Amino acid sequence: MVLLREGLCPGLSEDLIKALREGDVRTVEDLVLSDPEHLAQKCSVSYKALVAVRRVLLAQHTAFPVSGADLYDELLSSTSILSTGIGSVDKLLDSGLYTGEITELCGGPGTGKTQTCFSVAVHVAHELKQKVMYVDTNGGICANRLLQILQQKTANTAEQMNALQRIDVLRVFDVFTLLSCLQNLRASSLQRGSVGVGGSVKAVIVDSVSAVLSHMLGGKQNEGMSLMMQVATELKIIAKDFNVAVLVTNHVTRDRNNQLKAGLGQTWSHVPRTRILLQRTEQPGASSSFRTATLLKSSRRPCYLMEEFDLSPQPQEESRPRFAGKRKLDTDS
Amino acid sequence: MMLRTVCSSPLAPSVKVKLITAGFHTAADLTDVQPLQLCKAAGLSQEEADEVLRTLRDDPSPVQRRAAVQCLTALDLLHQEETRGSIVTFCSELDTVLGGGIPVGRTTEICGAPGVGKTQLCVQLAVDVQIPVCFGGLGGEAVFVDTEGGFVVERLVGVARAAVEHCAALAEDQEQRGALESFTVEKILSGVFLMRCHDYVELLAELHLLPDFLKKHPQVRLVVIDSMAFPFRHELEDLSQRTRLLSGFAQKLTRLASAQHGPAVVLTNQMTTKVSSSQSRLVPALGEIWGHAATQKLILHWEGAQRFVSLYKSSSHKDATVPYQLTAEGFRDATVSVSSFPSRSPAAGSHSKRPRTEH
């Protein structure tokens, strides 16, 4: 709750604050919770003034009721569905990432989480011409790969460059910087107003949220949990208030029965609205680029739906000799 | 930014509790407060109050902060990646798979059974990173953090000599011949900084000091830690503690690599046997969460007498498996096919330690 200070609301004068402080009432919370009659007597202030201040403060801090019909209208006008660029993942998500929601991809190492994020970033930046904020916490971002995906979509270099410019990359390696980045995004969106023309961020991708959080959880550390929930709150506010699709990635752990489950524990599992588990297709011998996606949590489609997809649909892989001298070295043996 | 909250700032938990009980929740609550006032109101010491105000107010003048979080567009990043280059491995097939070699500015993990050639590859990289620019190399230096005691300097000399001879054979123009004069075995040896860490405490300490070391030696383009697994597999009893330490470690390494002129970070890891429903297989050690640590993962393994290297995880290239061999000169392309490979003693199983080519 907020500290009582002058200018917070009309009628809250310095004298009144001082008098209240004598009576151990320092914050809005204290004031609202105490009985005004009792308080007026204890601090010898005017009962009327106290009730007036209390009423204004309550009105300031309360939530405003919205009717369902209005909400529905707003939903229809403001929600958009961003395709991930991968057909079968879209099918699981009921045609794509919904703005105003947090979607989570979880999976073990090398299961295609980052690749799916790249695909979303490129699709939103190129096809939808919207801005994307890509928060990279584990060093996985690779602009070369983004370019490769773009090259499959268009041969026009100017378009490729424009799309790349619409992807803002933030490289963050600890949770405090992550929080301040998210808060900055919120502040700058507030300044610009949420209906910026083409300039506002439509998708926020955090790859991966577990990398900055997992070492602060468990053991005797209490702070990690609180920081995790703050990240969750920030993400939710950004998603809801600015109508942004939020995509996060998470690692997996195994439970006692050796079953895969998403990382970061029970508390975090309430945060994403939709959760997808990515897995490698088990094939003895050769590794393939095929992955399966399983829906673990969703409010639209039945859970445990499974789809298969290919990470690199283009069979040929171009090798780029970037250094002239390197080729010469390679001819040896 | 006025939206910053006390809870989300990097302050000590006890300080946060004091601030919150005193009613300070956001940066906005602290805008007009003087340090002395804060001391009195929240019961903090003078230093703590100063620190709180510095932390929560520095955002409007983000000189220091901007350096920490640089907001780039993907296009800027692409240019950055193009200037970084990569370290060749001297195995052309592996270079092709990796798109030119081990990328600078990223973390790469090399996993493999004992004796399959993890340290050999690391030594090879420590030499290759020093190849002069006119030969297509990086002309850098290397830091080699040895935790197992597996670093053999004679081997480094052998690999270095082979690399020098190789470059000498390739020299064509005046510039390359000129560069060769200073590209000698002695030069290579003096460009490798060896750090011997005996336990995980030393390793953690070393990691904290590395950024300063890199600042003093800006030519370093490669940091090898051989191996990550050894100190963490033998000394830590508490498994969840180990996982937490390792995740923190991974973040530090990623930060190190992603810095402005960050080096390539190469880690080696051992393999462990995982038993799952009636069959066992070899998987990288240190647990599943550590698997997320490096952006690229190479697994070295045997198939009969032939050695193979697999790219298992990468954010930029497709998975692939290619053969290689270890010779007296170092890490090289496999020249002979599997069938014509000289057969070795039948006792050697597929994962057992086998003799290296003598040097």
UniProtKB/TrEMBL annotation, chain A:
Subcellular localization: Nucleus
GO biological process, any: reciprocal meiotic recombination
Region named Disordered: 307-333
Gene3D superfamilies per record: P-loop containing nucleotide triphosphate hydrolases
Any coiled-coil regions, as ranges: none
Main localization category: nucleus
Bias kind Basic and acidic residues: ranges: 317-333
Entry annotated with the keyword Transmembrane helix: no
Domain RecA family profile: 78-252
Ligase listed as a keyword: no
Keywords carried by this UniProt record: ATP-binding, DNA damage, DNA recombination, DNA repair, DNA-binding, Nucleotide-binding, Nucleus
Domain of life of the organism encoding this protein: Eukaryota
GO cellular component: chromosome, telomeric region; microtubule organizing center; Rad51B-Rad51C-Rad51D-XRCC2 complex; replication fork
GO molecular function: ATP binding; ATP-dependent DNA damage sensor activity; four-way junction DNA binding; single-stranded DNA binding
UniProt similarity note: Belongs to the RecA family. RAD51 subfamily.
Summary of the function given for this chain in its UniProt record: Involved in the homologous recombination repair (HRR) pathway of double-stranded DNA breaks arising during DNA replication or induced by DNA-damaging agents. Bind to single-stranded DNA (ssDNA) and has DNA-dependent ATPase activity. Part of the RAD51 paralog protein complex BCDX2 which acts in the BRCA1-BRCA2-dependent HR pathway. Upon DNA damage, BCDX2 acts downstream of BRCA2 recruitment and upstream of RAD51 recruitment. BCDX2 binds predominantly to the intersection of the four duplex arms of the Holliday junction and to junction of replication forks.
Protein name, per record: DNA repair protein RAD51 homolog 4
Species this chain originates from: Hemibagrus wyckioides
Organism classification: Eukaryota, Metazoa, Chordata, Craniata, Vertebrata
UniProtKB/TrEMBL annotation, chain B:
Swiss-Prot/TrEMBL keywords: ATP-binding, DNA damage, DNA repair, Nucleotide-binding, Nucleus
Location(s), subcellular: Nucleus
Stretches assigned to the RecA family profile domain: 83-271
A GO cellular component annotation in the UniProt record: replication fork
Main location: nucleus
GO molecular function, one term: ATP binding
Keyword Disulfide bond: no
Database matches in Pfam families: Rad51
GO biological processes: meiotic DNA recombinase assembly; reciprocal meiotic recombination
Ranges for region Disordered: 338-359
Annotated transmembrane regions: none
PANTHER family noted in UniProt: DNA REPAIR PROTEIN RAD51 HOMOLOG 3, DNA REPAIR PROTEIN RAD51 HOMOLOG 3 RAD51C
Protein name: DNA repair protein RAD51 homolog 3
Organism, as annotated: Hemibagrus wyckioides
Source lineage: Eukaryota, Metazoa, Chordata, Craniata, Vertebrata
